[in-house]
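User: quick one, sequence for these tokens?
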């Protein structure tokens, strides 16, 4: 998947990404509570210097900033990053955000206590070379004993069952109800799939359909653990949705002293 295609996918989604959530602000607060709890458990109360390197429109970054952490956002999509900064300001917080590829993070070495890569963003990287480049960069910008947080889909089960889509989600917006759903088309290798993201938006008594497409690598926990360990991280731990209430499995790992 070319870099420009992923960027276009999120540029196009940035305006309406919040419609994936029944209540975006409630979801922001909940996700910050869970992810912030993992940070506190490992690093203490803080506040901490946090990089959200796939910040999108700010779903995790804004919540963590409102909780008192000093958060910087970056995202491949300049449209999404700009919206994240604006949405934070509208809520009385500050979120410096820049357009940046997670494989080439434009930050100084050892700048952050925490690096977060959430919302199944890492699996947009479709080769081991690209995944390694991203993780090595995340390790570079973390301070010694810093914390890596990655959230991805539960791909072990998906690789076994190869689901063809996700059920519809209905969100209430000022313009009316928006219906969101996805279709997944698996590649012959059984590891990668093309995603079609549909939004049905009310429009003068009918519906307008928006379709966005991208490709993912369904990285299993064993595969991702291997890549994270190879990049120099230790204490790799998986946290299931059943254990912490987060909507995706969460990987945590530490950046040991050099």
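Assistant:
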């Amino acid at each position: 998947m070319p870099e420009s295609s992923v960027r276009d996918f999120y540029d196009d989604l940035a305006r309406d990404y919040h419609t994936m959530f029944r209540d975006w602000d409630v979801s922001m607060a909940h996700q910050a509570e869970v992810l912030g709890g993992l940070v506190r458990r490992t690093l203490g109360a803080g506040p901490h210097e946090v990089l959200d390197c796939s910040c999108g429109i700010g779903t995790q970054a804004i919540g963590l900033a409102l909780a008192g952490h000093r958060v910087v956002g970056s995202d491949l999509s300049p449209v999404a990053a700009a919206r994240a900064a604006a949405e934070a300001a509208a809520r009385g917080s500050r979120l410096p955000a820049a357009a940046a590829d997670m494989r080439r993070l434009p930050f100084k070495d050892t700048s952050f206590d925490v690096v977060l890569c959430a919302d199944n963003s890492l699996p947009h990287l479709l080769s081991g070379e690209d995944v390694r480049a991203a993780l090595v960069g995340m390790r570079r910008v973390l301070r010694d004993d810093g914390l890596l947080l990655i959230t991805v889909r539960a791909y072990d089960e998906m690789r076994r069952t190869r689901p063809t889509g996700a059920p519809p989600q209905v969100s209430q917006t000022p313009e009316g109800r928006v219906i969101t759903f996805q279709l997944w088309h698996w590649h012959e290798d059984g590891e990668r799939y093309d995603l079609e993201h549909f939004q049905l938006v009310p429009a003068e008594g009918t519906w307008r359909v928006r379709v966005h497409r991208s490709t993912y690598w369904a990285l299993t926990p064993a595969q991702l653990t291997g890549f994270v360990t190879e990049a120099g991280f230790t204490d790799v731990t998986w946290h299931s949705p059943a254990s912490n209430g987060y909507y995706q499995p969460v990987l945590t790992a530490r950046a040991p002293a050099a």
